[in-house]
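Is it possible to get an amino acid sequence alongside its tokenized fold?
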Amino acid sequence: MPVGIFRVCLVVITAIVNHPLLFPKENGTVPENTEEIIRKMKEREESLRLEQLRLEQEIAEQEATQKTLEKAAEVVEESKEEKVRWDMWTALSMVIFLLVELWRQDFQEGIWQDTGGEEDDMAVLGKAFKGVSFPDKAVLASFYEKRILGTTGDMARMREMVEGFADDLLEALRSVCNRDADMEVEDCMGVGSMYENWRVRKPFVCDLIVPFAPPEPYCFRSQTWCSGDSFPPDEQGYGTIKVCRADEDVTGCICDKTKLGEDMLCLLHSQANTTRPSSEMEDLLCFKNTQYLDADQVMKWFQIAVTKAWNRISHKYEFDLSFSLLDSPGALKIKFKSGKSIAFNLTPVVQYENSDVYFISHFPRSSLATGLPSSTHWFLTFAVYERRFIQLVSKTLPANACHVSCLQILSFLHGKQCSLTGPSGLTNYHLKTVMLHLLQARPSQDWAPEKLEARLQDMLKFLEKCLHEKKLYHFFIGNGKVPAELGFPIIFQRAEPLNLFRPFVLRRDVYRKTVDTFHEMLRNMSALINEYTVHIP
């Protein structure tokens, strides 16, 4: 019973509490507040989602930027490593290059294009000799005796005749010149193959050089490519000659080297002393508006002087004299009434200081050589020292040594081949340079007459090696082993070696033609020698 009453009371209380009329306002707004809350919650959710997307985008951008920076740092690091590696290889390459260059210079100074004297070394070179039949000793001896040896007497008679006439012509030249204004001409000297007794090809031509000097109070002051000033590679072997007063100090004042302003004067030299009339310099055969001796002006003066001298003495001779080459100042030809003629070169030169090295105005050029840098650049010739060296070495060689015979045979073969296939870049001077190198490299007993065949092969193989390397060094320039007895100027011994084959590097067409001519000469050597040799069973 009490439990039932309690339940009834509970139901009544619950009904009263939940009756809508008891709390009309609160219960009436509940549905509206719920919808607004839901709407705000959705808006909040949407804003949070957008914020989340923005934050995720920023984080992604930061990560991308970080990765880019990391990659850039890696690239920089790699480039630094590569640069370090490259610097290391560059330094290593420079060290190797310097070592090779030092070895090359030591090789040149110590051996100087030496063939080593070893037969094994020579055998390595002769690649072009494979399949070439070389004449034996008997054929070579017969060829030399029948074809070459007989010309020695003709050369001696021609030298004597030309020298006598040249002395007479120069004496007449001195008499027609003004001693106070014209150049002073000295005695002539014979150089070249005719005076070294290895000329074989006709016509025989004597080469005479004539030193000359300026009139007083002037003097020549020369400057060579190896005197300290920088000369371009194409001017190596050349020099310039300045005409100065004997009492003039060309190195003591800078007014002659520096261009002074119009309002500045040199206190040591007045304007009258430093400036010379243009006509005075031209009378001294200088290039226009300079003090440098002009080779073209010298050529014109010398030809005019020789013409005047011949007109004075022509009545004494029963032949005519004329210039045979227009571009050479002293290329003369004697014409006899019988129709025979004799050619010789009388070339003006300037002595270098107190030596026997000479500046030559015009030098016989080959297809290798290019034109002179200018008419104020003079070529240096060492012909007098070359003749003296051959004479000095000949005294130490066995009797009837074969060095001149080798050069004569090689010169004959090359000349005959050029007459068949046309001229090449090789000249007789190159062949003589090869002989000079081998004379210095090989002992005296190797030049005995019975070793003619072996030495001729050595010269051909040495020439082949030089052609292959495009290097044939001048015998005297840069050669520290020149005998002291010659009195050769030390400045040229200490100079850089002068490569006579340098033009081959610049002119590939001439090089190709020269190599082809040389190989053709080797193939035709036996035929050419047999053609001029009496048959030997």
About this structure: Residues 23-31, 106-125, 267-278 have pLDDT under 50 and may be disordered. Residues 209 and 277 are 31 Å apart (CA to CA). Residues 151-247+280-382 form a domain with the Beta Polymerase; domain 2 fold (CATH 3.30.460.90).
